[in-house]
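Catalogue entry: protein
Contents: sequence, fold tokens
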Amino acid sequence: MKNLYMIGGIMGVGKTTVCQILKQRLDSSVFLDGDWCWDMSPFRVTPETERMVLENIRFLLNSFLCCSAYENVIFCWVMHEQKIIEDILSGLELSACGVYRISLICTREALLERLQKDVVSGIRTEDSIDRSMERVSLYEGLDTIKIDTSMLSPSQTAARIVEAAKGNI
């Protein structure tokens, strides 16, 4: 049986870092960051690019799920709306797969601190702070397991995800 870990969360919560750690902890794993499918210049969000990105994500995830080399498929993306999660899942072959929908959340204070650090480091732009803060509350309404990362290291967060998949959270 394969496992699909869908890790969502607001920009700056630590999804990519946590998933890189998770990839090392889980046997026979592969990781896809949805942001890689949006890595374009100039960045354009149109109905056409949205459709293309979703199709590319589903194609890659299905390829990983069908490949015998992988037991664990890890996917992360912002996924701030239930419809995004369902649109991705609706195009996947999941008959022999456990699916774990997880949202990484944190307090507004912790998020602000992380984003400001990223801005100073040149990883993000100043406008990303407002965009992220506007979406923080959207994650509470999702049909996902919530893991509060405010006081957790990325390694501790990855451990919590593994525990959640075992049904221990």
Summary: The chain has a mean pLDDT of 94. DSSP finds six helices and five strands in the chain.
